């Protein structure tokens, strides 16, 4: 195969990932699961975007579509200015080195029959980027960069600890210097005692190499620490997106407020001043999402309009370019507090 690597069409701007109107529905015997229903998100070079939301909200589906492990029902995914949504597998192959996914569970994503060295070397071989001594050197350097001793190259995945295995999958993902890394809960399968070191490793490598990163997690403390921007997902849609510091300081969407109120904060004074918002019920089924605002069935602030009219994701008049989809948040950013809902609505004639 002599596929030439196309020049990056988007060198004029700094966007490495642009997801636009992404829809992914799964149709089965029970009906259509609307896992992702119109998500737009972009990531710049060197930027870490955190994607958070309850289990089942569609985060992994967005991540899988972003690296073309899954194909969207509608919408588009553009990586480095190339629309990869409808490229054939063959056309995609030379581009694959630009984007990688690090999975939650490294054991399932590493071939147990291969040695660590062969696993890390594989993408470099596939893309014919190195061979022979140069390849061996690259692998040794990569292992050192992820903090693994060189002799581990001869071991197989089952001989390593969980944290070491995840370091191997990070080394493999970064071996070809990707522009985009999607990390889907990369530490949640690991022992708590090694989670921080693997997170720190990812952050250090990202600062050094400036790849764009979509970081999917349940760990709000982790995204607060490492993400530049955070996108909050609820039932297949984004409800809020803002620079990390702004989102944590002043969440606008009632769902974001609830999500953050349930997370431990390092500062006890802040914890005391922040009332815990307990959402009623479970995430509704994506087989039959509520009409109007999808969050209205659990929102302590919902009014009639929320039950009938789906709110659009709007950009607020704030410097950071925050986006919110809630009827109750004003364009100037004035937002109600879901922890202190006003139970009485006075309708004047
Ligand atoms: N291949 C599939 N076939 C059918 N339904 C699917 C498929 N993949 C995902 N889903 C459904 O799509 C919805 C979103 O799933 P997804 O895995 O993206 O959520 P998530 O936010 O990553 O959850 P978690 O935090 O638990 O990892 C869920 O209801 C899930 O059951
Ligand atoms: Mg997931």
From TrEMBL:
GO terms for molecular function: ATP binding; ATP hydrolysis activity. Transmembrane segments: none annotated. Keywords: ATP-binding, Nucleotide-binding, Transport. Pfam families: ABC_tran (PF00005), oligo_HPY (PF08352). It comes from the Bacteria. SUPFAM superfamilies: P-loop containing nucleoside triphosphate hydrolases. InterPro entries: AAA+_ATPase, ABC_transp_ATP-bind, ABC_transporter-like_ATP-bd, ABC_transporter-like_CS, Oligopep_ABC_C, P-loop_NTPase. One of its GO terms (biological process) is transmembrane transport. Residues 17-260 form the ABC transporter domain. Belongs to the ABC transporter superfamily. NCBIfam families: oligo_HPY. This is ATP-binding cassette domain-containing protein. It comes from Streptomyces malaysiensis subsp. samsunensis.
């Amino acid at each position: 195969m002599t596929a030439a690597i196309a020049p990056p069409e988007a060198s004029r701007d700094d966007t490495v990932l642009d997801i636009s109107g992404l829809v992914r529905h799964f149709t089965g015997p029970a009906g259509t699961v609307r896992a992702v229903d119109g998500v737009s998100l972009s990531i710049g070079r060197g930027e870490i975007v955190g994607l958070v939301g309850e289990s089942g909200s569609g985060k992994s589906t967005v991540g899988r579509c972003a690296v073309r492990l899954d194909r969207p029902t509608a919408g588009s995914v553009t990586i480095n200015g190339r629309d990869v949504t409808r490229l054939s597998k063959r056309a995609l192959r030379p581009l694959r080195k630009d984007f990688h996914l690090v999975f939650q569970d490294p054991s399932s994503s590493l071939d147990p029959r291969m040695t660590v060295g062969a696993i890390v070397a594989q993408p470099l071989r596939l893309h014919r980027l190195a061979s022979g001594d140069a390849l061996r050197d690259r692998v040794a350097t990569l292992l050192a960069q992820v903090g693994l001793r060189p002799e581990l190259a001869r071991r197989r995945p089952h001989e390593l600890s969980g944290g070491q295995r995840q370091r191997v999958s990070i080394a493999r993902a970064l071996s070809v210097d990707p522009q985009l890394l999607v990390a889907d809960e990369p530490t949640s399968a690991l022992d708590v005692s090694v989670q921080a070191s693997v997170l720190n490793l990812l952050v250090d490598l990202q600062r050094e190499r400036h790849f764009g990163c979509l970081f999917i997690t349940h760990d709000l403390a982790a995204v607060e620490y490492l993400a530049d921007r955070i996108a909050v997902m609820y039932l297949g849609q984004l409800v809020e997106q803002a620079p990390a510091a702004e989102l944590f300081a002043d969440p606008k969407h009632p769902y974001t407020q609830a999500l953050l109120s349930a997370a431990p904060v390092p500062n006890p004074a802040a914890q005391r001043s922040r009332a815990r918002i307990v959402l009623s019920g479970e995430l509704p089924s994506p087989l039959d999402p509520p009409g109007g605002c999808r969050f209205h069935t659990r929102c302590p602030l919902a009014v009639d309009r929320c039950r009938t009219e789906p709110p659009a994701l709007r950009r607020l008049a704030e410097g950071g370019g925050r986006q919110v989809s809630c009827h109750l948040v004003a364009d100037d950013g004035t937002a109600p507090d879901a922890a202190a809902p006003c139970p009485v609505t006075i309708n004047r004639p």
